[in-house]
Amino acid sequence: MKAYLFLLVFIGLSSNLVLGQSFQKMADSKAFQKKLHEVTKNTKSLQTDFVQIKHLDVLSEDIESTGKLYYKANNLRWEYLAPLEYLIVLKDGKVSIKDEGKVSSYDLSGNKTFQKINEMMMSSIQGDVLVAEEDYTYVFKESSQSYLVEMYPKAKKVKEFMKSIKIYFSKKDYAVEQVKMMEQSGDYTLMKFKNKKLNASISDQLFIIK
Questions:
Q1: pTM of the full predicted structure?
Q2: Is the distance from CB of 47 to CB of 68 less than 8 angstroms?
Q3: Residue 17 located in a structural domain
Q4: How many other C-beta atoms are found inside a 10 Å radius of the C-beta of residue 92?
Q5: Which residue has the higher pLDDT, 189 or 23?
Q6: What are 33-85's pLDDT values in tens digits?
Q7: How many domains is the chain built from?
Q8: CA distance 204 to 7
Q9: What is the band of 32 on the pLDDT scale with cuts at 50, 70, 90?
Q10: CATH at residue 155
Q11: Which residue spans within the chain are E strands per DSSP?
Q12: What's the DSSP call for residue 14?
């Protein structure tokens, strides 16, 4: 149950809207997808700082956290540093969580819904949103500065809590600028990435929790 609750919260990662930009239908979504695939294919690793703001309607104030994210070979390390230390690692179909010095691990491979969530999270981080029409309905938009891909899940169990995913890309280098995942309840999380480094050396030890 704890793993399930963690996933419901964790997949709520997103970022604030790109202010001051007016989006319209993308002129050539096929060309965009082709270029994005080329960029993603050449991305072997990613490390970045982040600021995350979680909004819950039941709370009077949003919850702000900061930390670091590392991605390498389909492995993901999501490390919260302040105000509390909390570590999440996705590796080989398992999620491991370190909270207050205690480590818990859960196998996601036996649950198709969790697998879809895992794929959703990985594709959001990588920026790899090549169309999988059996899983999502896609809407492609753009502004003068950014591309926007809106993803609406089709799977019933995912739709019960996830309303949509919006991923913003820079027109300069196709890097993911922002991600917004909106829950059916209206809750959401705002996230900003900064100090991004592509294809820098990342130790495999970072994806092992002790």
A1: 0.73
A2: yes
A3: yes
A4: 10
A5: 23
A6: 888 888 877 888 889 899 888 888 888 888 899 999 998 887 889 899 999 99
A7: 1
A8: 24
A9: very high
A10: 2.50.20.10
A11: 24-25, 45-55, 63-72, 75-82, 86-91, 94-99, 102-107, 136-142, 146-153, 162-170, 176-183, 188-198
A12: -
Residue 94 · residue 73 · CB < 8 Å = no
Does 205 reside within a domain? no
d(CA 155, CA 171): 31
Q: Which residue has the tokens 């970022």?
A: 15
Whether residue 209 lies inside any domain: the answer is no
Token duo for residue 60: 């009077």
Torsion angles phi and psi, residue 122, rounded to 5: -65, -45
At 47, list the tokens.
């490390």
Q: Is residue 27 part of a domain?
A: yes
Q: Which residue type does 190 have?
A: L
The domain containing residue 22 runs over which residues? Answer: 2-194
Per-residue pLDDT reduced to its tens digit, 137-169: 999 999 999 999 898 988 888 788 888 888 888
Integer CA distances (angstroms), 12 to 7, 22, 162, 163, 176, in order: 8, 24, 8, 10, 16
In one-letter notation, the amino acid at residue 198 is L
Copy the structure tokens of residue 67: 């930390």
Of 50-59, 121-130, 155-164, 190-199, the one with minimum mean pLDDT is 121-130
Q: Which residue has the tokens 């896609």?
A: 138
